Amino acid sequence: MAGESASFSTTVASAEGENTDYGFERAEMYQGNLAGTVNPYERHLFLCYKSHESWPSHIENSESDPLPTLLASALKARKKDFQVQTRLTICEGGDDVKLSEGDVVIFPDMIIYRGLKDSDVDSFVDDVVVNGNPWVSGIPNELTGSYVFVCAHNNRDRRCGVCGPVLIEKFKEEIEFRNLRNQVFVTACSHVGGHKYAGNVIIFSADPEGKIVGNWYGYVTPNDVAELLDRQIVKGEVIDRIWRGQMGGKVKETEKVDESKLANGTTVANNVIQPQENAIEEKAQRSASCCQGANGFSCCRDENTEQKQDKNKGGLSCWTSKLEHRHVLTTVAIAGAIGTIALAYAFYKRAR
Known about the structure:
With 352 residues, the chain is α+β, with helices and mostly antiparallel strands. Helices cover 38% and strands 14% of the residues.
């Protein structure tokens, strides 16, 4: 009895130590800002493959796991051809979630392709992911209900390995209690980013408008599970205090700018006018700023044209002035000559 008691005490102490170091009581819990810790993306693929206990640290690059490696490589090679940003995550199958090895689940499309094989990866990526067409080698099945993915990737990070399985069991317990077994499905998934935010949970469910949204949550504890089911899944309400972001989510504007208050003619759509644009605008204002008539016709003359006309006018006036001056001198000379001739003729008559 004494030996059994000592063994039990050691097990309890070990469990408490793990919870303090890696579990829900670790010091880093609630120390980081969660909102905005999800990079923008619009589509999420989940490949069902083996169990979370067997996943190596980087399962997408594991030589011993060809299917996830081939799919990850094909997606990476074709990512420039995608119409939308796409993520790949590995998940665990099981009868309770109606998923088997090789199944590919696609959100927000809410479809599943069954039994992807190594030899089919390239055609699947080309048909479905790149071109958005049905896969020639498979028939898509529609999904119904809500899906909960909990990071339990122990070989990647111990925090997820400790928190994930506990959350999965709590979700299953609360789902059973609420009689949601055929409406809400929960399973383990591989690394999704942000180990320090463990427990990490992604919930794909309908929002109040009926649109399928993937909401990410961090620092999730067993105490949050009931609220996630009742508010996020049943009502479509986001729980802000543990919310990280969402699939398809945009960065929230920290401040809305009133267009009427923007200076220098800037607008919300184009709130920066480059220096060269300012110069062009000022020049245009100088050239034709006084008024505009109907149909955009300007009633004002170009300043440069006016300056040219003034210069031409100045040159003409100078030339005219010189011409007039010469004409006066010529007239005086002629008058003087006529006067001299008349005077000489008068003297001639007197002499006779």
